[in-house]
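Repro:
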Amino acid sequence: MSTLSADDALSLSYAFENVADTLGTYKKVPGISDAAWDQLDDAEGHIRAQAAILTTWAVGKTIDDATASLAAIQTAVKNANAAVDQIARIAKDVGKAAGVFSIVGTLIALAGSITSGNLPGIASNVVSLGTQAAAL
């Protein structure tokens, strides 16, 4: 079973709010008994509380994802800097040109992953950079 995404949690929150709004509308029906009004009011309050919890969770999930993404980007920058240093050291060695071009290609792919927010792509390219730099 996959985990709930921040977008899914927000969608659920909006749906809960819509249900709560509908319950609020029914409280205004003329002639509604006090007991029925109380039940609708309690249900509306509970549903709004759940909507708030979902919204809060979605915000927290977004922050967690951004933090993980930032850590991956920082690692990628560190690996890219190491790769650039390695490239500078071996630039005169024609025999390693294929490895240099491979690193350059991975750096380009990493940049694309970062700008598109592709977390799996970032992770994959970070690993590739480390492997390629070690192989030079």
